[in-house]
Amino acid sequence: xxxxxxxxxxxxxxxxxxxxxxxxxxxxxxxxxxxxxxxxxxxxxxxxxxxxxxxxxxxxxxxxxxxxxxxxxxxxxxxxxxxxxxxxxxxxxxxxxxxxxxxxxxxxxxxxxxxxxxxxxxxxxxxxxxxxxxxxxxxxxxxxxxxxxxxxxxxxxxxxxxxxxxxxxxxxxxxxxxxxxxxxxxxxxxxxxxxxxxxxxxxxxxxxxxxxxxxxxxxxxxxxxxxxxxxxxxxxxxxxxxxxxxxxxxxxxxxxxxxxxxxxxxxxxxxxxxxxxxxxxxxxxxxxxxxxxxxxxxxxxxxxxxxx
Length: 308
Hints:
Strand content: 5-15%
Helix content: 25-40%
Domain 4Fe-4S ferredoxin-type: 174-206
Family: Belongs to the QueG family.
Subunit structure: Monomer.
Binding site for cob(II)alamin: 61, 132, 153, 156, 167, 214, 239-240
Binding site for [4Fe-4S] cluster 2: 196, 212, 239, 242
Strand order of the largest sheet: 1-2-7-4
């Protein structure tokens, strides 16, 4: 006879797929023992640069039961964002995740629907939904849930789908069937390490966040250090180099989420268009995009840094 645990788990996974998630894995909520010393050392060595928020809620980052009282399961979900078309060659580049609408809103809506389905079928559930906006180590939970392994570039990698996807979680008080971690399939490959324009991957599986192009173009609020001049490879917002060169991304397939489709004007922007961008054009093209996070002034600073 099928237990409630099995029934509930199967239902949640099938609902996740129905809502457009690429995959769903579940693990037991509890303290992340192996991640604790890694996170502590990373912070001690100031690999977070000016991302001071990474130092907050240290205990909650490592134990979701402190974040959601009574929680028993972490449901990890992946949502594909790999685009059909990319920017033209003569352009300053933005990370593919920022081509369409801000993923926070798109995923939050899907998570709300998933919670509604769970409560309609299983009953009242205590829990919270997270999309990269709370102290949750989402890559660690996704790996624990069998959705992939953490690669040498510190991204979650999947044999089936590469790494161009978002990660989200539901942390709930439901007792469910748990998945198992998969093995690492990076082997002896060092393509991501060799290709990183700023040598931010300081060793296999170790990224110095304060050296990453994404950090400089999005998180850093002051001037970009002069020693980085000529090393940005035309990236004006974020960077995909370590993903673009990863052999597992040959298995990436285009997403089917219309809200992630780029504004056609974005794909046609040339370097001179970027250099002449006005506040109105910025507001128009990036109205609902993650690029708004850099603000118009931040984007201008990045363009000037690439132009000089």
